Fold each of these.
Amino acid sequence: MQWGLDLIIAIQRFHGPALDGIFRAFSFMGEEEFYLFLLPFLFWCVDFGLGARLAILFLLSSYLNADLKDLFHEPRPFDMMPSVQLSSAEGHGLPSGHAQSSVVVWGSIAAWVRKRRFWVATVVLAVLIGFSRIYLGVHFPTDVLAGWAIGGGLLVLYLAMQSWTERKLEGLSLGFQVLVGVAVPIVLFLVHPVKDTANTLGALAGLGVGLALARRHISFSTGGPRREHIVRFILGGAIALALYLGLKAVFPGEGSAFYLAFRFLRYGLVGAWVSLGAPWTFRRVGLAAEAERHIWF
């Protein structure tokens, strides 16, 4: 850890308002709030199947990251030297969730795009997001390296098992798909019931149920003119944000015996809106056309 602190101190000799702003912007690209907008955008405006697959992979990756952080229980740099902290961060340090998610998310998108220049851009972006966490003094270099390695392993596993997993899901009845979508996140949550896992697994449960029902009952196309894309994103995003913030205001807060259960429910409702409620609404109000064929699970 000492060499990591020494490196952070050396990097921060060049820090100033401009560089701080740049690296805080890259760091934001690994925050929950950023993904709250990116994933719905993919669902509603780019490709529903890509959004579905990426959301599930991202949420499972985030759950694993929370498990590993609590398992290793490693400190952050500012726990040892408060003067290096240039940004806020909670929880333990190893592995870096920002670094892990950057590889998983942008690597999955690059695999879908299938263009070399996008892979190059993905590598550059993952490096900058990871480096931003070191620059801001919230992660040791080893935290970031571990995050990149775990994210790369998950990405390879996803690409290898994607087709087989989807064939298995397609063979299940609707009732069993809904049961799996609810039961698996609940079981995983009971294994590790903390605030961060309530977020990820609640959203995963809502997505799982929403995707199963959407596949059977909604034919939704992400195509259409740009104006429709903009209105979809603004309308859908506003309602998602209202659920995210509004329910937080009315549900029991930290300290309540029911806090984690209601947090799980809040994120579940956001996930269900993104995967089911919004596509249904867009079809009903004429903001989306019928898809020629189902393009997800």
Note: The chain has a mean pLDDT of 93.
Amino acid sequence: MLPAMADGNGSRRLRIAALAALAVGVAIQLVPIDRSNPPVESEISAPPEVREILERACYDCHSHETVWPWYGYLAPASWLLAYDVGEGREHMNFSTWNRYTPKKQAKKLEEIPEEVDEGNMPPWFYLPLHPEARLDDADRETLRRWAQASQPSPASP
């Protein structure tokens, strides 16, 4: 008779734990997350083939044109997504390119091929749900040539 009582108590504990987990799951959905896309102030100047690559592989995190996917509305995934977008926009934001000084723009243009060639961008964890963002060798070369050509020429002495 003792095992039957244990099963009854164990089953009750399991139901209580499941209900508590469900309640927590519902409650965390109420935590507000900023999924805003402020107005675009200015765009970085780029030819169409470069803009296509940037929009496909970079803009979700590095612009005010983020496409918020369905899982961006479910906590805790929404928290991670909002954090990553915030960090991406803080590091480089193509929608506020005009805020950067020419020196800062040059530095950012220098960083683009470095980050892409080192495999840091787009991040590995972004690619499984966004396979279209994967960059091939031609994409990387296009970005590299554009970034180098867009660098301001050194001032003559």
Note: DSSP finds six helices and no strands in the chain.
